[in-house]
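Take a specimen:
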Amino acid sequence: QVQLEESGGGLVQAGGSLRLSCAASGRTFSSGAMGWFRQAPGKEREFVAFITWRRNIYYADSVKGRFTISTDNAKNTVYLQMNSLKPEDTAVYYCAAKDSYGSTWRGEQRYEYNYWGQGTQVTVSS
């Protein structure tokens, strides 16, 4: 059984930093991709970032230059380093994983991922 477990969320002041972690168990994603999405109250879940096994990385425009996604394959874990946080970054952050992908995969849509974590709350105060 595949499980994704997020951690690292919390309350931080604007301008501060947090690092989210997502540990995968039950299988590896060494030929796939892992990503982060977020959902603010009353809004749709939106793409934040992904990283593929080829180390291709892509960010949403809203976080580019402030967030960094990385992986530790030995630990089967993906990280999201979030700097210069803003109140509008407040959301529940979800880890997602795709076990393998083809040439049409873009990685920005929820349906493109097979597995999801339960989410971790990030709150940025002004």
The longest strand covers residues 18-25. The two ends are 40 Å apart (CA to CA).
